[in-house]
Write a structure and sequence with these properties.
The protein has five helices and no strands.
């Protein structure tokens, strides 16, 4: 699991709740730019920031972690499919 996987999970949960970056950032007590960088996988958030995000998203931290693991599995499946397609050429 990578920072990008965590970021994708946060973005997916945020969008599912129809919340803006600004609103989620306010609820999680962080700057919107920092949250945007987390969603893009450009930040390595501390445990406290991850807990703050989970609380603001109203999900347990374990669910946020599961969502990130799901993102990692999807990303791996896409990489493997691309590799197979390239090998078939």
């Amino acid at each position: 699991m990578s920072n990008a996987d965590l970021g994708c999970a946060v973005r997916r949960l945020r969008r599912a709740r129809r919340v803006t970056i600004e609103t989620l950032a306010f609820d999680a007590e962080m700057h919107p730019t920092y949250l945007s960088e987390i969603e893009r996988g450009e930040r390595n958030p501390s445990w406290k920031k991850i807990c703050d995000l989970a609380t603001a998203l109203q999900v347990p931290v374990c669910q946020l972690a599961r969502e990130a693991e799901d993102e990692a599995q999807v990303a791996q499946a896409v990489r493997e499919a691309r590799t197979r397609l390239m090998a078939a050429r």
